[in-house]
UniProtKB/TrEMBL annotation:
Its EC number is 1.1.1.100. Keywords: NADP, Oxidoreductase. This is 3-oxoacyl-(Acyl-carrier-protein) reductase. The lineage of its organism: Archaea, Methanobacteriati, Methanobacteriota, Stenosarchaea group, Methanomicrobia. The active site is at Y154 (proton acceptor). It comes from Candidatus Methanoperedens nitratireducens.
Length: 246
């Protein structure tokens, strides 16, 4: 198993990619703290993977709250004794053209997708530095690399995560902590359910692999970067998009 006895915190774990990642990491031997704003959904996930016994706990937490993330990390260490992996997976979209986007839409997405990741990293990093090892993986997006009409807030946040990833790879690498990012394309999750069929079919036609991604495609990318298979990879952005942006 590739994550034998590792301890991982996964944000946005109540559905989609986060849920798939929690299940995959458990299968690979990790002990998991699953966190999101939905305690009910988290409880359901823990029931689904209850066969792993004491390897999974869930803690309701909002990444925009520094205090709640401190509690998540504290409970993780109290339960498992350490934290080896942080998956900054939590994210939202609130799309609109720039001329119609409200200040609230801008702030909401920046606060969750960018500042939320910063909160989690700033809380976890001292523990990883103290133990001399750790892996942090940020969920960026192809929108953060190439932009996307109607997503100035989302694209800005995801681009910011790439800058954060590269900067922290330099800051924390010498402390034994690797920092990388994953940039998914269109993935079949609750976040993309509102995309009209016409648009989705156009995206599929533009994608060399002729499909949109599954949550497991991104979860396996997280797994690779979190494992020792990637022990000399630091500051990179791994595209998971079927070749959409070649």
């Amino acid at each position: 198993m590739r994550l034998e006895n590792k301890v991982a915190i996964i944000t946005g774990a109540s559905s989609g990619i986060g849920k798939e990642t929690a299940m995959l990491f458990c299968q690979e031997g990790a002990r998991i703290t699953a966190t999101s704003r939905s305690a009910e959904k988290l409880e359901q996930i823990c029931r689904e993977i209850s066969g792993y016994g004491e390897k999974v706990i869930y803690i309701k937490g909002d990444v925009t709250s520094r205090e709640e993330m401190e509690e998540v990390v504290r409970k993780t260490i109290d339960t498992f004794g350490r934290v080896d992996i942080l998956i900054n997976n939590a994210g939202i979209t609130q799309d609109a053209l720039v001329t119609k986007m409200t200040k609230e839409q801008w702030n909401n997405v920046i606060n969750v997708d960018l500042s939320g990741a910063f909160n989690c990293i700033q809380v976890v990093a001292p523990y990883m530095i103290e133990q001399g090892s750790g892996v942090i993986i940020n969920a960026s997006s192809i929108s953060g690399i190439y932009g996307n009409i109607g997503q100035v807030n989302y694209a800005s946040a995801k681009a910011g995560l790439i800058g954060m990833t590269k900067t922290l790879a330099k800051e924390l690498g010498k402390k034994g902590v690797r920092v990388n990012a994953v940039a998914p394309g269109f993935i079949k999750t609750p976040m993309t359910e509102t995309v009209p069929d016409k648009i989705m079919n156009m995206i599929i036609e533009r994608t060399p692999l002729r499909r949109i991604g599954e949550p497991g495609d991104v979860a396996h990318a997280y797994l690779y970067l979190a494992s020792d298979d990637a022990k000399f990879i630091n500051g990179e952005v791994l595209h998971v998009d079927g070749g959409l942006v070649l």
